[in-house]
Amino acid sequence: MNDTKLIDIASALGISVTTVSKALKGYTDISKATRARVLEMADKMNYMPNSVAVNLRTNETKTIGVIIPATVHHFFSSVLNGILEEAEKRGYLVIILQSNEKYELEKKQLALLIQKRVDGVLMSLSNETDDFFHINETIRKNIPVVLFDKIAKRVDCSKVIINDAKAAYDAVSYLINKGFKKIAHFRGSYVPQNSIDRFLGYKRALEAHGMEYDSKLVYVCDNNTDFEDGYENAQKIMAEHPDVDAIFAITDLVAIGIIKYFNEAGIKTPEQVAVFGFSNWFMSTVISPKLTTIDQPGFEMGHKAVSILIDEITDLKEHRPIKHQIVELPTRIIERESTVK
Amino acid sequence: MNDTKLIDIASALGISVTTVSKALKGYTDISKATRARVLEMADKMNYMPNSVAVNLRTNETKTIGVIIPATVHHFFSSVLNGILEEAEKRGYLVIILQSNEKYELEKKQLALLIQKRVDGVLMSLSNETDDFFHINETIRKNIPVVLFDKIAKRVDCSKVIINDAKAAYDAVSYLINKGFKKIAHFRGSYVPQNSIDRFLGYKRALEAHGMEYDSKLVYVCDNNTDFEDGYENAQKIMAEHPDVDAIFAITDLVAIGIIKYFNEAGIKTPEQVAVFGFSNWFMSTVISPKLTTIDQPGFEMGHKAVSILIDEITDLKEHRPIKHQIVELPTRIIERESTVK
DNA sequence: ATTTTAACCGAAAACGTTTTCGAAAACACC
DNA sequence: GGTGTTTTCGAAAACGTTTTCGGTTAAAAT
User: Fold this and answer.
1) How far apart are CA B9 and CA A152, in angstroms?
2) Which CA-bearing residue is nearest the C1' of C15?
3) Do residues B155 and B304 share a domain?
């Protein structure tokens, strides 16, 4: 254990800790000469400031907390990637917590982060979360929060999102323009905003193009971890509505479940039924036929969210007013085989 | 900002900070009565200890650092999942850093973690890493390190691994027993231990079954982020060795690249050429034909690695001798369509 | 009535920094 | 030689805890 601290440098040089500290931090009231001596000695003794002490004194930890619903998830790991890169670039470390889509866990973890004195928090809400007191409390405590992807419209903070409704609208419009007549939707569960918005986009696109919305063509897939849901509902819809000719799925995972079933049941995609996914996961190029989907820029989302968060943190520190922003990242249709005859 | 501290409780109750602190921590020299009063007041004032101050005083941060080569990677995100779960259960937070397979980054990040005063470090080495000074230095500073998956045999610390050589040996033996005669290997780059070990397992299996090892049947795939490498080398091998009848790939990603090419080129899998992957990524069930592969227990690996690390941290704290352990997690063959005719 | 013991509490130091403020020294000017 | 100015440094407080050690009081024992 050769942990050198300020006092070691000070006594080695016969000067005070104050002077050493100031020399290292470039204060101007230290002469060039002693400053040089300090720098040299610090280097020689391999000095590294004790972050914990610095944190206590400066009241900032240069750490941000991140709460996501899951890590084993292509989209979220992309976001994480963006977060880590941008945070590192700006000199912040990041503590990750995963809520496993549980509201209670999410709440507990947020409390943990606050206690750890993180400088700010990045969150994507769990599917269960429909009460936002814990988030509002955090904001009230002057800890900046930025929400991404799975957000709550009613919380007053910065957000980084895609326009789920528009993306879904575009997807379904695309299908309509391709000539598909009976378009079903495999939606997600009822609470998350994305799920609602994508459903609304689906519905609006139908109505905008003079097609009748039929609630019986909407199936709920609320399992996020495997493609069974898509598989089973595909089976079901073909029994109940054998004349459906396209399905817009809430995620690539669901879409892949659908295609899996179709492949096994000998239902041709896209000839008999076209399939449209959402998110552009890696595996959407692995499945055959390759999946048409919406590209959801996870990496950029992580980048942007960190960037906004750190800006708010520094604004707060310097007593500048912080203005919340809602950034909407563009999405686009990735056309592949599952929708082109 | 309503951050209550010990002194707030103390003055509200007309007692000293010492007493409050002791009451909260259950010291026995505080009367039942005042202890109750303190607890109640702390609850009422919503007291949460300032971790930074505690850290400084106790000289531990209850935080562990994790350095992995990549986050957008099915295996590593599984490990991360295990790490997060076990760490949370044991009251530790985790700081994630990704090296992007770069040695210099890995080194810098380790320094960052040390400066942050993490209590221990979990690492999976980058592909470039062939110098271990930074890790040995960390250990010398009495910061426990446990390596997982991509380890260095020469570093003296605990490790959690699979037996890559044996797993590869089993895979190739399986192919041999299935009657495949000309088995190629798509290996990884030359530095990482896994890559070496899987290659050795391949070679030994051939030799053990009286088959000749031919270095011309070994192709190098050193790109870890997409399946192009597998795709291109599949193309190449079919030109150079059209009579190959099985390929053992170093990862599922490479295997999927191979199958993709075969599907496009009309080469039947497994009829003409069987394909064997490694890791059991999610997408190995998405590809058609479904991929036979080796199950690599990422979640358990994360779990175990954290468990060992925290044990070492507490042993160290209580001045017990720490004994390094090498834990080898079992793997097994997942037989799917890509190898059964 | 005195001593012993136990129960309860608090002063103070410590963890390693940062920053304010004042003091000393050096220099300049008349 | 006095006055003012600049340069350079350090003492000390502060951040919020934890823990040691001693002190006070009350109860128990003699």
Assistant:
1) 35
2) B57
3) yes
Query: How many domains is chain B built from?
Result: 3
> In the structure, how far is the CA atom of residue B61 from the C1' atom of nucleotide D6, in angstroms?
45
Q: Which of B50, B142, B286 sits opposite A117 (nearest CB)?
A: B50
Is B256 within 8 Å of A77 when comparing Cβ atoms?
A: no
User: Tokens 């000998």 correspond to what residue?
Assistant: A266
Decide if B55 is inside a domain. Answer: no
Amino acid in position A28: T
For tokens 């790109």, what's the residue? Answer: B223
Residue nearest to nucleotide D13 (CA to C1'): A57
Residues B289 and B187 in one domain: yes
Q: Is the CB of A43 under 7 A from strand C?
A: no
Amino acid (one-letter) located at B22 = K
Tell me, what's the pLDDT at A38?
A: 96
Answer for A212: CB within 7 Å of strand C.
no
Q: Provide DSSP, B83-125.
A: HHHHHHHTT-EEEEEE-TT-HHHHHHHHHHHHHTT-SEEEE--
Same domain? B137 vs B176: no
Mean pLDDT for chain B overall:
95
Where in chain A does DSSP place strands (E)? 63-68, 93-98, 120-123, 145-148, 158-162, 183-187, 218-220, 246-249, 274-276, 293-295, 326-329, 332-334
Domain identity same for B28 and B152? no
Does residue A102 lie within any of the structural domains?
Answer: yes
**Calpha distance B290→B153 (Å, rounded):** 34
Q: Is the CB of A286 under 7 A from strand C?
A: no
Whether residues B122 and B84 fall in one domain: yes
A vs B: CB pairs below 8 A: 117
- Read off the pLDDT of residues B219-256 as tens digits, 9 standing for 90 and up: 999 887 788 999 999 999 999 999 999 999 999 999 99
| pLDDT band at residue B318 under the 50/70/90 scheme | confident
B184 with B143, same domain: the answer is no
How large is the average pLDDT for residues A43-70?
A: 96
Nearest CA in chain B to A63: B95
**Does residue A31 reach within 7 angstroms of strand C, measured from its CB?**
no
Distance of alpha carbon B206 from alpha carbon B204, whole angstroms: 5
Q: Which DSSP state fits A185?
A: E
Contact A52 B48 (CB under 8 A): no
For residue B50, give the nucleotide whose C1' atom is nearest its CA. Answer: D16
8 A C-beta contact, residue B338 and residue B276: yes
Amino acid identity of residue A1, one-letter, is M
Domain limits for position A118: 61-161+298-329
pLDDT tens digits along A246-257 = 999 999 999 999
User: Do residue A40 and residue A67 come from a single domain?
Assistant: no
β-strand partners of A95: A65, B95
Residue keyed to tokens 């004195």: A117
Q: Is residue A148 part of a domain?
A: yes
A318 and A281 both lie in a single domain: no
